[in-house]
Amino acid sequence: MAPWLLALMLSGAGVFDITHAAAASEVYHVGPQARIKVAIVEWIAATGEYKEWTALNGEYVVSQSGSISIPMIGRMQVGDKTVDDISADIGERLKQITGLAVAPTASVEVVKYPVVYVSGAVEKRSELEFRPGLTVRQAIAMAGGRERRSTQAGDYSEAQQISYAGEISRMELQLKQLGARRARLLAELNDQPAITFPPEIKAAPQGSTVWQIMTSELDLFNARAEALRQQLAAAADLEVLLRNEINILDEKMSSQDEQVKIAQDELSDISKLVDTKILTTSRKTSLERIVAEMQAGKLDLVVASMQAKQKLSETERDALNLTGQRKTDAGQQLQIAETQIEDTKLKRNTTLQLLQISGASLSRTQSMKALDLQQLEYWITRNGDEAAAIKASEATELQPGDVLDVRYNISGSLDGAALSSADAGQSQ
Length: 428
What we know:
The protein has helices spanning 3-10, 15-27, 83-98, 136-142, 158-189, 199-202, 209-275, 281-372, 416-427, and strands at residues 35-44, 49-52, 58-61, 67-70, 74-77, 105-112, 116-120, 126-128, 376-381, 390-392, 403-408. By secondary structure, it is an alpha+beta fold. Helix 5 (158-189) packs parallel to helix 7, helix 5 (158-189) runs antiparallel to helix 8 (281-372) and helix 8 (281-372) packs across helix 9. The protein is rod-shaped and about 185 Å long. The protein starts with a helix and ends with a helix.
């Protein structure tokens, strides 16, 4: 078995890793930030066995200066060298340090490559872990694809614009409805015989929604006015009845007074005759009972008259309350309507501003969509030399540490005005 193959097996690498490392070593020269794995073994001829140098084996990260530090050897330069070159250097240095006749076998494997940076017109600027064969197309896909500028946060769709327009129309209709209600309530509050509608409501064509609203308010006004009229008429009729009843009771009381007076005069005459023994006492007693009954009847008439007068007073008060209650209800409803009008106006103005913003956003979105259709170009910077950036295609293979910049091809068919509009919208 070849020494270098045994060394790789002892380091824990499988057949796939060996092939992978061998393929990578053909093209890759180790650079800063690369992580390499070192495995060192020595052939002991006396025993016919291999001995691992476990103290030196392990993973090492290449510094920015292109060096690593290995026990016994110290710091050594590995930058811009292949893994085969590094393996040979490690074995030769250990031979010189230890004085061995045969250099130990060193195996070097790249376990992690420097990251690849993707920037520019991609959805997500990223640091990607390199793998051999990584192309520009694959790197862009790993970064989320080309940027989707037309769907960035804060944009508005045409459906939202239509929704805002519909909401404004609904609020305008609601304002006319509230305006018609306010006109009716003002007429009721001021005891007006008719409603004075605003000109924009009064001019509504027959059969329209606004005309139907106005007609509904007129019907309600007339119905409420008729209900009040009937209630007041009923109260007036009751007042007439009660007044007639009081007059009749007054007449009865006058007649009762005359009858009591006649009975009392007759009782006085009979009392004189009883005193002279001409009439018996029973006749006087009977007449006294009649006078008492007549006086009691008068008291009943007085009570009935007082009750009728009390009902008359209550009826008059109820009639006044009907008118006052109507004005009170109209005033309260008018306050609610005024508040709703102001609130609806505020909402309408806010929605109108949103509609204007959405219109500007849609215009900006159209410009963004034009950029989405624009061709891209790809530039690769290697070894940090931006001045030496090279133009690439989607099939170009990247190298560890490359910086891929995805740009819009602004020299193509894109209209300059659209680009300026898009840039201005993005800056906002």
